[in-house]
């Protein structure tokens, strides 16, 4: 997907697609985990969907927030509520 988008000059869509696809994987992988894991995936998917409609300059900010703050925040939440 990355190669296809980049080859066609759609670089601005990359952050949104990465967040959407990663969020989808987290939702699917978290189906048999604690409830917070699929919720985290949904948050990542929401960020990805919004990132698709924003200017290219906002892509890095959304990726930093999604792959950084969202995962760290949910990691802390899961560690506190479920012991790690």
Tags for this model:
84 residues; mainly alpha; 4 helices; elongated
Q: What is the helix content? A: over 70%
Oligomer state equals single chain
Taking pLDDT < 50 over at least 5 consecutive residues as the criterion, the unreliable ranges are none
The helix count comes to 4
**What proportion strand?**
under 5%
Measured on Cα atoms, how large is the radius of gyration?
A: 14 Å
Helix-strand sequence: HHHH
Question: Overall mean pLDDT score?
Answer: 94
The beta-strand count equals 0
| Major sheet attributes | none
Q: What general form does the structure show?
A: elongated
Task: Kindly name the structural category.
Answer: mainly alpha
Distance between the termini: 33 Å
Q: What can you tell me about this protein's structure?
A:
It is a single chain. 74% of the residues lie in helices and 0% in strands. With 84 residues, the chain is mostly helical. Helix 2 runs antiparallel to helix 3.
What are the SSEs and their pairings?
Elements lengths: L1 H6 L6 H16 L6 H16 L7 H24 L2
Helix pairs in contact: 2-3, 2-4, 3-4
How would you briefly describe this protein structure?
The protein is mainly alpha-helical. It has four helices and no strands.
């Amino acid at each position: 997907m990355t190669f296809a988008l980049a080859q066609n000059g759609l670089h601005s869509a990359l952050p949104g697609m990465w967040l959407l696809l990663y969020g989808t994987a987290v939702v699917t992988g978290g189906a048999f985990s604690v409830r917070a894991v699929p919720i985290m995936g949904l948050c990542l998917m929401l960020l990805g969907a919004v990132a698709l409609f924003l200017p290219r300059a906002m892509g890095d900010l959304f990726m930093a927030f999604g792959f950084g703050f969202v995962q760290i925040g949910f990691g802390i939440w899961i560690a506190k509520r479920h012991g790690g």
